[in-house]
Amino acid sequence: MPSIVVIGSQYGDEGKGKVVDLLGEKADLVVRFSGGNNAGHTVVVKGVKYKFHLMPSGAIQGKRCCIAAGVALDPRVLKQELDQLKGKFEFSLVIDPRVQIIMPWHNMLDATSEEAKGKQRIGTTGRGIGPCYADRADRTGIRFAELVDEARFMERLDAVFSIKEKTLKAVYNSGMQISKDEIFREYRALGRELKQYLGDVSVEVTDALSQGKTVMFEGAQGTYLDIDFGTYPFVTSSHPISGSIFTGVGFGLRPIERVIGIVKAYTTRVGGGPFVTELEGDLAHTIREQGAEYGTTTGRPRRVGWLDLVLLRTAQRLNNFTEIALTKLDVLSGLDEIEICTEYKLNRETVRERPADIKDIMKCRPVYKKFRGFKLEGKLESFDQLPKEAKEYVQFIEKELNVPVKIVSIGPGREETIFR
Ligand code: GDP
Ligand code: IMO
Ligand code: MG
After folding, report:
1. How much is the pTM?
2. Domain holding 236: CATH number?
3. Nearest-CA neighbor of 20 among 37, 8, 9?
4. Beta strand 267-269 with 303-305: parallel, antiparallel or unpaired?
5. Domain limits at 125?
6. Co-location of 192 and 214 in the same domain
7. Whose CA is nearest to atom 6 of ligand 2?
8. CB 3.0–4.6 Å: which of 3, 7, 176, 283 could bond 219 by disulfide?
């Protein structure tokens, strides 16, 4: 099985980290291809929790980890992560020279632009992601190859610093809180330390695939945070959907053996934007607490709601999942009744796929099918051991989406997983 792609099918935080860790055992390479440290992927091994923001979750399995061209990399954060992992796990790391570097002004611009947006604020993670990708498009970005080469870094810093200083002042009436000299010294040190990881990920992954090695692509964020296909403007600035492995890593179109859609058994969202099946009140509180639905990166409480099949049907079209991993089924355990949104009402029309325009999505009302609740108790090792009602819930999802649910996750730990 040479290529395995793990993709968030909803608004992020579906449990991608757990699945990457589980299946990573069989991988030769684990590759991050989009997003940056706005991601927070949690892996729980023998009761110990590890949180990854930039490092591929394959690090725990001692894999060769790749950070590909499509990633926005904050070297301060990467250094912290490496310091925590080194000595504990025997992984290796390669970072593509084309990777865009998150600079201090990106964090400042993220904060100031959110503030300036007022009610229209996106609720970003504040990690500088949007401004960094904007600079890539504007061609004022600094790449990893430049960070690790002192003379080139100085040159780029000279060219970009004064532009950013002027932008912060003129547009946001805000100052640069750090001097060019301070940045140079801090980033030169980071560059020196990270230089050892420089390598062409595009070449490495292409070669690995040609040699029949197993490459795992670790998606970040979720389908509806996609900059084009998500709920724009309430999205991130990259492409979390499956097709972006080709442009994010740099290899030509080819068949991909496994595209695993990670589907949380209900829906959550952090930050602003439409959420058709959102719940409020006691039920929302119960699910949030049972699911520990607080952001891995920012600690913000996640908004929660019922599972949304309209959203998932479109996610299936956008990603072409070959299978689904259904996570956090245990969180629904103990509820008397569970609902699944099967379609929307948009004015008088019935809608089975997500409208393209956010204006229409805002007007959509969910239509629910009710399911009897279930209790997951005792040691559950096979699908057959699940209560009848839980099996019905899972089977309904796979029938509606016409994709097999091959993994059912019933807890954060590796062992709390049912394979079918
Ligand atoms: P990711 O961003 O998609 O990797 O997901 P996060 O790590 O941000 O959030 C998922 C959270 O749910 C983490 O705390 C996981 O440890 C946890 N988790 C994953 N699968 C399950 C599960 O099946 N049941 C429960 N209760 N927790 C899970
Ligand atoms: P993982 O990989 C959940 C959300 C933010 C905000 C929007 C834009 O852990 O699933 P950004 O900082 O990217 O400009 O914020 O996107 N967001 C995520 N939500 N999980 C994530 O990653 C996210 N990454 C970004 O909350 O609404
Ligand atoms: Mg997360």
Report:
1. 0.97
2. 3.90.170.10
3. 8
4. antiparallel
5. 100-197
6. no
7. 124
8. 7
